[in-house]
Amino acid sequence: MAVTDFFAGEIATELLKQLIFISAKAWKYKSIADRLIILIETIQPTIHEIQYSGVELPPHRQAQIGMLVSTLEKGNKLTEKVLSSRRWNMYRQFTLAKKMEKLEKTISDFMKNQILTHILADVHQLRANADVRFDKVERSLTGLEEQLGSMKIGGGGMIRDAMKMAEATMEIETSDDCEKFGVGLEIGKRKVKKMMFAAEGGGLFGISGMGGVGKTTLARDLERDGEVRCYFEDRILFLTVSQSPIVEELRTRIWGFLTGCEGVNHVPDWNLQYNGGVKTKKLVILDDVWTRKALDSLTSNLPSCTILVVSRSKLADPNATYDVEVLREDEAISLFCLCAFGQKTVPPGFDKDLVKKVAGECKGLPLALKVTGASLKDRHEVYWKGALLRLSKGEPADETHETRLLHHMEASLTDLDETTRECFLDLGAFPEDRKIPVDILINMWIEIHDLDEAVAFATLVDLSHKNLLTLGKDPRLGSTYASYYDVFVTQHDVLRDLALHLSNKGKVNRRERLLMPKREKELPNTWGKNCDEPYNAQIVSIHTWEMDDMDWSDFDMDFPKAEILMLNFSSDKYVLPPFLSKMPRLKVLVIINNGMSPAVLHDFSMFANLSKLRSLWLERVHVPELYNTTVPMKHLHKMSLILCKINNSFDQTGVDVSSIFPKLGDLTIDHCDDLVTLPSSICGMTSLNSLSITNCPRLSELPKNLSKLQALEILRLYACPELKALPDEICELPQLKYLDISQCVSLSCLPEDIGKLKTLEKIDMRECYISGGVRSAVSLECLRHVICDKDVAFIWEEVERAVPGLKIEAAEKCFSLDWLDE
After folding, report:
1. How far apart are CA 484 and CA 441, in angstroms?
2. Hey, what domains does the chain have and what are their CATH numbers?
3. How does DSSP assign 106-126, residue by residue?
4. RPW8 domain location, by residue (predicted)?
5. 3-class DSSP state for residue 68?
6. Cβ-based neighbours of 91, under 8 Å, separated by 6 or more
7. Alpha-carbon gap, residue 321 to 314, rounded angstroms
């Protein structure tokens, strides 16, 4: 039976009730209502017989039932209007009476064509054919049972027992997923239905999410949903495409479904067109689609229909895609308990807090909850405690848990090219549940994978589209001259665990990545036991508390191939590891203090051995003072000081900063609250290409000798509220292309000679209340883009007329300190 048949019966019954009520209460419509009652009572038995036949009708018969359903629905709406119409509105009553006469004629014509009689005959024929087929199947099964009855599996178990065991193993996959997912599933269904129903002419829609988050469960529930089946008149095709699809076979099935020619074995012409007949809405659900190429092969040149693509990547338009989210805590615990105990709640006598902690390690991911719960089923509490300890360390609950979970999750990586896969594995180097600065990722990938910046960013976006990480939404992201140091990505813990698992295979000394899964008081013992042999790791990530000389004493390790070192700690003082001097190839050094106050670093003198260091990131530390004896960092290209105490580090008397950083091209100082005046010594770094002084609340003055930075192309000064003026010398920068002064609320004017910046292409001055225009700006012949608030856009009107192709954009506010909330 089709859902359409069911609704025909229900709607007919409801319409009959309404007509009887009209006949009794509304005398002006009584005669028409009585005639309609006779018609409905005549066809109702036939509809009921079709409704409860249990037979799936062919498409053309379903279309005919669909026509009847549509007519009856219109009749229902019409009777509601009749019952709600006021007696004094004679014109409306006359109009409604005419519409009821038209409804009577439509139903009468339907009956004259004896369509329901033909449908009922088909039902009887199909039922008879089905009985014959079931008899054959039953005889075949009986014979098969007799043949297999004595066969053994595994030295004694009957096949039936093996089947039962397999069913028990798959219990978590076959249970009622609707019941498990609760409110989250209903929200997803509602949002997807709203998208599909709003598009009258069909279109391409998507369900997206990481592996194991419940995409297919949502798609299956939509396929069964009564509203969906009614809207598409029961014309829904669900196909699983898979990673290695047989495209021709899938195309044939789609072609047969859309044209009604479902018996053909070959598609004669894939350029399908609608050729008349009863035009109906149809839904094609394509589950487990891996690539855009596969999707295009299956959907190109289709006639009008709705396509719902289910994929780990965002293959449909983002505005037409629903991202499946992880479960809320209460839903997660219910699902976990269902798989672990066979019920939605913790059974009496079992440690509820222990269950909550174990379920919490799954971070709301349905697959992890199901696999972990099933792996702990029928286990004692002592075993649960051991599982919790292993899970908290990023290890599997047991071997079965590891095999089943990783089998599903690792499939997310098989479609990645080698470089993108390696970039995904690099994410395991970052601490759990912390935002990852995009700038650090991009720098890592540039140095270790030899990527251009544009390619590295494209890789980041690709991983985001495949739901292997979550890219923070920022309107500046991806735009020309965008900065990345205050934009972040996050990653689900289960995906991080996958990266750690794949990276931590093999002997410690042989791994390409040496990573700590979580913060510990000291380094893993296995690291110290192998110090007599060099380590092959290219990436080393350490996550500890405070470390002193004694803590490092047992870890005299040699890293001849290390190119990236990440030191995450939580303390107000920190001794740098002695093996830092044994990393001759180190290119990227990241030092992040997750504590509450800036930390003092000790043994900074070891930097003398880092001759190949190209990128340095210091966060929440005291920047060491520079002296003439400081060994030059000849290859350092990029330095980022975030939430640091500058302590006049760059303004030491007699210190030649340019000789210490002879090739520094990119300097960022962000959220450094003790920076009042930008040291003039920085202007001696003539190699600087990009200078970013941002979110420094006390910065009030820039050096007068800023014009020395002859190679400077990018100058960012945003969110410095005490900065009152830009020095005139800024107009002497011959290579400047981008100027960002947004949120510098104390600035009241631009330099008079700003027109001298002949190479300037873009100015960002949102939330910057400059009131007076600058006449010389009409000479900015390369200027292409100005971003400002609406109330100051008028100062650029003359410039807009003078400079061809100039875009004046009144932008939305996009700056915040939300990223500081860890």
Report:
1. 9
2. 3-113 (no CATH), 182-268+277-323 (3.40.50.300), 326-415 (1.10.8), 661-821 (3.80.10.10)
3. HHHHHHHTTHHHHHHHHHHHH
4. 1-149
5. helix
6. none
7. 7
Per-residue pLDDT tens for 741-799?
988 888 888 888 888 899 999 999 888 878 776 778 888 888 999 888 887 888 888 88
> Cα torsion for 775, 778, 784, 785, to the nearest 10°?
20
| Residues whose CB is less than 8 angstroms from the CB of residue 521 and which lie 6 or more positions away in sequence, other chains included | 544, 545
Q: Is residue 573 within 8 Å of residue 592, measured between CB atoms? A: no
Whose tokens are 């009777």? That residue is: 79
Q: 428 Cβ partners below 8 Å, 6+ apart?
A: 496, 499, 500, 503, 513, 515, 541
Would you say 622 and 571 are in contact if contact means Cβ atoms under 8 Å apart? no
Cα-based distances in Å from 251 to 241, 244, 263, 268, 505: 11, 14, 13, 11, 41
Q: How far is CA 812 from CA 766, 787, 789, 819, in A?
A: 8, 10, 8, 18
CA end-to-end distance (rounded Å), the chain = 54
Q: What is the DSSP letter of 561?
A: T
**Is residue 345 classed as helix, strand or coil in its secondary structure?**
coil
Question: What are the phi and psi torsion angles at 429 (to 5°)?
Answer: -80, -10
User: What is the enclosing helix (H) or strand (E) of 615?
Assistant: strand 615-619
DSSP for residue 354:
H
Amino acid, res. 656: D
Per-residue DSSP letter, 701: B
CA distance 442 to 449: 10
The rounded distance, in Å, linking the Cα atoms of 490 and 476 is 18
Q: Is the separation of the CB atoms in 356 and 333 below 8 Å?
A: yes
Q: Give residues with Cβ within 8 angstroms of 750, minimum separation 6.
A: 726, 770, 774, 777
* More reliable by pLDDT, 650 or 776: 776
Rounded distance between C-alpha atoms, residue 291 and residue 293, angstroms: 5
543 near 518, Cβ under 8 Å? yes
- CA gap 702, 684 in Å, rounded: 14
Give whole-number Cα distances, 720 to 59, 162, 203, 279, 677, in Å: 67, 70, 47, 62, 11
In terms of phi and psi (left: phi > 0; alpha: psi -120 to 50; beta: otherwise), the region of 28 is alpha
Statement: the pTM of the whole predicted model exceeds 0.85: no
Q: Which residue is it, tokens 């076979």?
A: 249
**Contacts (Cβ under 8 Å, ≥6 apart) of 314:** 206, 208, 321, 323, 465, 467
Widest Cα–Cα separation across the chain: 108
Q: Residue 277, exposed/middle/buried by CB under 10 A (0-12, 13-18, 19+)? A: exposed
Q: How far apart are CA 500 and CA 498, in angstroms?
A: 5
Extract the tokens encoding 769. 């209340």
Region of residue 331 (left: phi > 0; alpha: psi -120 to 50; beta: else): alpha
Rounded Cα gap, residues 40 and 110, in angstroms: 12
Residues 6+ positions from 185 with CB-CB distance below 8 Å: 177, 178, 214, 217, 218, 221
Q: Contact 560/534 with Cβ under 8 angstroms?
A: yes
- Per-residue pLDDT of 466-520, as tens digits, reads 667 777 765 555 566 666 666 788 776 667 878 888 888 888 888 889 888 877 8
Is 182:334 a contact under the CB 8 Å cutoff? yes
**Backbone phi, psi, residue 518, to 5°:** -150, 170
User: Which has the closest alpha carbon to 494: 185, 207, 212?
Assistant: 212
For the chain, the C-alpha Rg in angstroms (whole number) is 35
User: Tens digit of pLDDT for each residue in 410-446?
Assistant: 655 666 788 988 998 998 898 876 788 888 999 999 9
Nearest to 671 by CA among 601, 619, 632: 619
